[in-house]
Amino acid sequence: MAPHRYIASRSSAVQSETAAGAAPPAPLYGEPQKFDKYFRGPVRKRSCTDVLCCLIFIIVILLYVALGIVAWLHGDSKKVLYPTDSYGQFCGQKGTSNVKKPILFYFNILKCTNPAVLINLQCPTTQMCVSKCPDKFATYTEMQLQHKLNKSNWEYYRQFCKPDFNNLDKPISQVLRDEDCPSMIVPSRPFFQRCLPDFITLNGTVTTDNRARFKDALEMARNDTELQPPAKDMTGLVDTKQLGMKIVEDYAKSWTWILMGLLLSLAVSMVFILLLRFTAGLLLWTTIITVILLLAYGMWYCSMKLSQLRHKPGSDVAIVEVSLQTDLQVYLQLTQTWIIFLVSLGVTEVSILLMLIFLRRRVRVAIALLREASKAIGHMMSTLFFPVVTFLLLTVCISYWLMTAIHLASSGNPIYKVVSPDVSCPYANSTCKPETFNRTNISKLALCQGSQCLFAFYGGETSYHRYLFLLQLSNLLVFLWLVNFSLALEQCTLAGTFASYYWAKRKPQDIPPCPLFSSFSRAIRYHTGSLAFGALILSVVQLVRIILEYLEQKLKGVDNSLSRFIMHCLKCCFWCLEKLLRYMSHNAYIMVAIYGKNFCTSAREAFFLIMRNVVRVAVLDRVTDFLLFLGKVLIAGGVGVVAFFFFTSKIPVIQEEVPNLNYYWVPLLTVVIGAYLIAHGFFNVYAICVDTLFLCFCDDLERNDGSSEKPFLMSPELHRILGKSSQVH
């Protein structure tokens, strides 16, 4: 029986049963809504929806602008760029007394090898800004003795003391107690604006200025091996900056080639979409088979590498024992790396094969939907470039949030905290004043010996400074709200555009002019409140998830199984809630774009419409997403392979053009991630188109019966394939 005859006969049977007095069969989830007989596309006569939320959204944006202005006036982004001494002053900043002192000097570098360095990112010793690092050994005691013979010794040593100290008659015990001068200085070199010991190897022994042993001001014997751990710890704190500088250097050398790679991915994505317009079935089946063959080749290659490394010494070392390495070749020499690759590829291969075996019919239906989506996009090519508008909106949101967060974090006056070598000190992290700290008894306590009053962060006692944390949370919440609103605007705009295509009786003659602009205007003019309402609900859940992540980091050191269990349960629940809300709001935006109702009504109608077609939706939605994902992976992977061969100088024709890089994976990963995001932007339009057409199809089945009075508005191909599946469900 033909699909339209089946549906028409079923409708006639229902009408005859109703006329005979029997109740018509109720749908599984909710009653279908009463339809307008002459409905032919998105409703044009609309009214504003969720007006209260719209007003709140506008007020919040104005307050957010005010927050950014206040943060800009109180904060200073330069505080993030310059190292800070113990008094909260910046080294090398123009307009300050330290303008000619760009380097940070540690009074006692030996104190930098304790947990406080990693916990507070501060070394528990006095830190001063200096113009240059010391280039010779000297102790305070030696300097006092030599000063009587040569005053130049004091002139050299005093540049590493506090600026206001000039009392050589002060007992050395009090000098060291008050941290007026360092007990000793060692030859150092500037390492990212910080003085660290300058080590060299002499006859197999690590030395500093050709001296492996020396004495400090208290005549205690020291050797260079004691300086290595603190120097290593301090180096670890700035290694990220060094890595960042090298990455920036690689970007500077290869940005033109990265741009060419991204343009190549853009061209490939466009060609892929144009081919989908005419050969959707062939192209998608080719994509599936290509991905299967590539996965099989990857599994074979991993097996070959495992057989080669099996007898190689040192290849059995675990990845966790290697720690973080910037050279990827280190990991490629480990068998565990290739085992992980092999297992991942094998699981992916088996999953694809099982899906093709058990869901082959649904794959054909999904391909039909993609073919219909290709036709819709082919008639409205401007929809492919609407993600550029979303990208610009997201760029503005991210930039504004980042600058506001930086200026909020750098607002106020310097706040000082007690930094102790022993983390069990009861006064650790408590507020203190450097001027009076030495007159307190804190450093005399057994658990707090060696404590220092050091600069911690910028704050204040005003209401603005007291609520900085809440302002940061507000900044984050509004940022999430704006991001989700931008994404909702894109979904609603595209959904309204594609709905106008579906409900056009004659395609493309009955498609309204400028459908994308008309849909965008309707979304902004009438439904800003509904979009903001849905975005707010999702943003609150995301903020709660971020807070839970923060609390989990704080509770890592707490040995409490119950609290960890509760935390994991909460994270799992809110993750599921976010996924559910994201899916429901996505369908609600489609209904808002078509019928112009408020968010809650649209979400309810979308929910019942989906539940009445739950089997069809559950399978087709996942299969379609999977096919689009394979297309994105194929584009990103293909461009990535070309980039890999280029940056590793394996293309003989242009081998001489390859820039000399520190890490070839920097431009490679940039090209691959950028290609995937570009492909995702194009295919996301397809995903929205498929979802819109599918909801319109389900609505069309309930609204019309295929008769001459109520003909289906779906295309003949879509009717033939999807209508046949409706006989089963």
Quick recap:
The chain has helices at about 5-20, 50-75, 115-120, 140-145, 150-155, 170-175, 225-310, 320, 330, 335-360, 360-380, 385-410, 435, 465, 470-500, 515-525, 530-555, 560-595, 600-610, 615-645, 665-705, 715-725, and strands at about 105, 125-130, 140, 185, 190, 195, 200, 205, 215, 220-225, 415-420, 430, 450-460.
Helix percentage range = 55-70%
Shape: elongated
Number of domains: 4
Question: Helix/strand-derived class?
Answer: mainly alpha
* Oligomer status: single chain
Biggest beta-sheet profile: 3 strands, antiparallel
Strand content: 5-15%
Number of helices: 22
Taking all residues together, what is the mean pLDDT? 76
The neighbouring-strand order within the major sheet is: 12-11-13
Radius of gyration: 34 Å
Function: Choline transporter.
Membrane topology: Multi-pass membrane protein
Catalytic activity: choline(out) + n H(+)(in) = choline(in) + n H(+)(out)
Pfam families: Choline_transpo
